[in-house]
Specification:
four-stranded antiparallel beta sheet
Length: about 120
C-alpha cells in the first residue's frame, strides 16, 4: 500500500512563506503524477498544482507567480513552496498521488491534510 505523509503547514502572516512536503511510503510503486489540493471551510477541494515524474508542472491561476511545486524523483517526494501568502490561501492542503498498480487500475491516494493559516 501507499501512504502519503504531509508536513510543513502552520500559521503565518500575510506575505510570509511556507514549504509543504509530501513523502510517499510503500513498496514497489511508481508515480504517474502528484498534486496539491486545498479546501477552505465551506468550499470544495480544489487543485492547486500538479507535477509529473518527468518534471512537467501546472499551477492554477490564483497561485501562479507565488507557489512552486517540485519533486524529488528519487523518492517521489513532492514540495509546495508558497511565497507571498494571502489570507485567501488559508485552507487544509492535501497531497495527492496517482499510482499505477499491477492490475492496470490507477490508485488515487490522499494525504491526511495539513493546515495552512494566513493572518492579516
Amino acid at each position: 500500500q501507499v501512504q502519503l505523509v504531509e508536513s510543513g503547514g502552520g500559521l503565518v502572516q500575510a506575505g510570509g512563506s511556507l514549504r509543504l512536503s509530501c513523502a510517499p511510503s510503500g513498496y514497489g510503486f511508481a508515480i504517474n503524477f502528484m498534486a496539491w489540493y486545498r479546501q477552505a471551510p465551506g468550499k470544495e477541494r480544489d487543485l492547486v498544482a500538479r507535477i509529473t515524474g518527468d518534471g512537467r508542472t501546472n499551477n492554477v491561476d490564483s497561485v501562479k507567480g507565488r507557489f512552486t511545486i517540485s519533486i524529488d524523483n528519487a523518492k517521489s517526494t513532492v514540495y509546495l513552496q508558497m511565497d507571498s501568502l494571502k489570507p485567501g490561501d488559508t485552507a487544509v492542503y492535501y497531497c495527492n498521488a496517482n499510482v499505477p498498480t499491477t492490475t492496470g487500475r490507477d490508485l488515487i491516494v490522499w494525504g491526511q491534510g495539513t493546515q495552512v493559516t494566513v493572518s492579516s
